[in-house]
Amino acid sequence: MSESPRPIRLTLPATSANLGSAFDAGGLAMGLTLTVDARVNEAADAPELTISATGRNADRCSNTRNNLIFETYRAVLSGSGGGVLPLELRLCNEIPLGMGCGSSAAALLAGVMLANHFGGLDWTLHACMEEACRREGHPDNVAACALGYMTVSAETEARRVVAVTCGQAIDWKLLLALPAASLATERARALLPGSYSRSEAVYNIQRSALLTGAFAAGRGDLLAEAMQDRIHQPYRNQVCPLLPMLLPLAGSEGILGVALSGAGPGVLLIAESGAPATAVTARIRQAAQDPGLEVLETRIAPGVVQQVS
Questions:
Q1: Do the strands 161-166 and 305-308 form a parallel or antiparallel pair, or are they unpaired?
Q2: Could you give the domains of the chain?
Q3: pLDDT per position as a tens digit, 205-216
Q4: Measured between alpha carbons, how far is 233 from 225 in angstroms, rounded to an integer?
Q5: What are the pLDDT digits (tens) for 81-112?
Q6: Which of 60, 97, 139, 240 is deepest in the core (most CB within 10 A)?
Q7: Residue 61 and residue 55: Cα distance in Å, rounded?
Q8: Is residue 106 within 8 Å of residue 15, measured between CB atoms?
Q9: This model's pTM is above 0.90
C-alpha cells in the first residue's frame, strides 16, 4: 500500500485589487491571512471533506457544502484525471468575507495548491497561480496572493499570466474600513458600463502607470493622485456608499491614498508608516459618520507560503 502524501500548511494573504486606477491589473497583498492545514483522511469510511475552522467568519468557513477550497481541489484533480483523496482541513481565517479583500482568490489558490500537492501534479507556483487565475476570471487578486506585495499582472492572448512585483521594502500602514453588509463581486461588476471614452481610458492609464512607479520608488506623495479612478469606482458608489465619504481623506494628515478595496464595499486607506493608527482611525470614523465602523490595521505582506510536514 502506498503512503498518503504528507500533510501541508498553506498561509495565504488577503489582497486588495484595483487600488483605484489599476482596474483588473494591480493587487496588494496584506498581512491578514487564511491558514489551511490539510491532511488525507485515512479512515475507511471517511467523508470527502472534514473541516474545522477558527477566526473570522468561522461558521461560513467550516461549511462543507459548496466549499470553494475543496470544490477547486476536486475540479482540478478531476480535470487532470487524478483521484480525489478525502481531506481533513483546519482553517484559521483572518480575511473578511465579501468585503473586497480577496477571500475567493485565496480560496481558489489554496484549492489549486492542495490539488497540486495531494495529486502529485508537480506544478510550479506560477502554474498554480495561472490555474487559479483562469478560475477567478482575472489575475489581479490571485497574482498578488501568490507573489505578494504590490503585484501588477496581465493575461496574454494565449491566456498565460505575466506578473511583476514591487514594493517589498515599503512600510506604509494599510487600513481597511469595513461596513456591516457584504457585497457580491458579481453585483458590483454588473454596475460597470460596457465601454468608456478615450479621455476616461487615458485618465486611468496615466494614473495606473503612476501608481506602479509610486510603489516601485516608495513615493507615497504620489498615491493621492495615482489612486484616482474613472473606470469602476464612480459606478459602484451606489452600493459602496462608504467610498465617497472617505475619498476626500486622500493626501491629508498622513493618509496617502484611498480606494475601494477590490469590488468593495470595503475601503482601503494607505497611510504613512509613522501615522498614529488611533488618530487615523478616528478620522475615518468621523468622515464615515459612524463611530462604530470597523477599521482593521495591517501591512503590505509577502505572498503564499507552503510548508510540507
A1: unpaired
A2: 8-167+301-308 (3.30.230.10), 173-299 (3.30.70.890)
A3: 999 999 999 999
A4: 14
A5: 878 999 999 999 999 999 999 999 999 999 99
A6: 139
A7: 9
A8: yes
A9: yes
